[in-house]
Amino acid sequence: MSIKNLLPGRLGFGTAPLGNMFRAIPDEEAAATVQAAWDHGIRYFDTAPFYGAGLSEIRLGEVLSGMPRDAYVLSTKVGRVILDEAEDPAARELGEKGGLFEHGRPNKMVNDYSADATLRSVEDSLKRLRTDRLDIVWVHDVAQDFYGDEWLARYETARTGAFRVLDRLRDEGVIKGWGLGVNRVEPLEVTLDLDEPRPDAFLLAGRYTLLDHERALQRLLPAAAAQNVDIVVGGPYSSGILAGGTHFEYQQAPAEIVAKVERIKALAARHGVGIKAAALQFSLAHPATAAAIPGATRPSRVAEDVAALTETVPAAFWAALREEGLIAGNAPLPA
Questions:
Q1: CB contact set of 289 (below 8 Å; sequence gap of 6+)
Q2: Which one is catalytic: 44, 51, 208, 237?
Q3: Distance of alpha carbon 234 from alpha carbon 232, whole angstroms
Q4: Which residues are registered as beta bridge partners of 110?
Q5: 51 in catalytic set
């Protein structure tokens, strides 16, 4: 099924921050932010067990369980099973994402992409989300940034386990679609080369943004478009640096990234353009992209995202970015 037909709009809500990413967020602030997304008309919500060891799913479920289930689209992820036993969240081995959810729940997380773990993960997510069904399921983080040289072995487990289970669940009508949710281009390129199983879409975080898009443009996006596999863009603000924050790739932004952002901001100011509008509209301009799902932890941020989607961005601004070499010459630009 085309994800573009399933998704209710071009803007969704990513709930990684609700798992206490970077800071401990009060429950009431998290709930108010989800409510703000709903009140602004957002009807696609994405979460994962990984976000705070189930905390994001629990918080999202508390708000959405009061809404009509047919009124919104929900996606979560498989690949990590959350246990009842405790561990130190700050001591988890998370590859390049160390300490990311150290303020989340202390429940032990087990990486497992097998068929059995996939089914268990789906069941557990349904309970935390307080719902009877999921619309889209992503196979989470089966990539180099978490597993280093072991990523292909993890991928192979997912291919023979999670991929086949999700393919079957879709064919049985239990879910409407599935794909991979990753921060790297390579697993998606590998998947597009397979004869089976066939994913419906990909969630690609951080790799089709103003700051990082050249690699995705080379092969992934043309191949995805050719095979009708839609891309949901995660992290359109590159972990916050394009939205006034200081993080890039989930860590403090390095000096060269800060300098590049300052150049983009200077051009944006000259053309009267908001940096969020530039980032969001750029990510959505490629024909392969179906939606973008920025995250937020404050209600006011949601209003900014909704406004950024429809802000008028003059063609001269995009031309200036291209002239200064700040975006690739072959990147599709907003009309």
A1: 208, 230, 231, 232, 233, 283
A2: 51
A3: 6
A4: 81
A5: yes
Tell me whether residue 77 is one of the annotated catalytic residues.
Answer: yes
Choose, from 44, 72, 77, 97, the residue flagged as catalytic: 77
- 267: tokens are 């051009």
What lies within 8 Å, CB to CB, of 313 at 6+ separation is: 271, 273, 277, 278, 281, 334
What does the CA dihedral 162, 166, 168, 169 come to, rounded to 10 degrees? 140
Single pTM value for the model:
0.95
Owner of token pair 């969704």? 12
pLDDT in tens, 254-303: 889 889 999 999 999 999 999 999 999 999 999 999 999 999 889 999 99
Q: Is the dihedral of CA 315, 320, 323, 326 positive or negative?
A: negative
CA distance 241 to 211: 10
Q: How many CB atoms lie within 10 A of CB 315?
A: 11
Instruction: Spot the catalytic one: 27, 39, 44, 46.
Output: 46
Residues in the chain: 335
Cβ neighbourhood burial of 186 (10 Å; 0-12, 13-18, 19+): middle
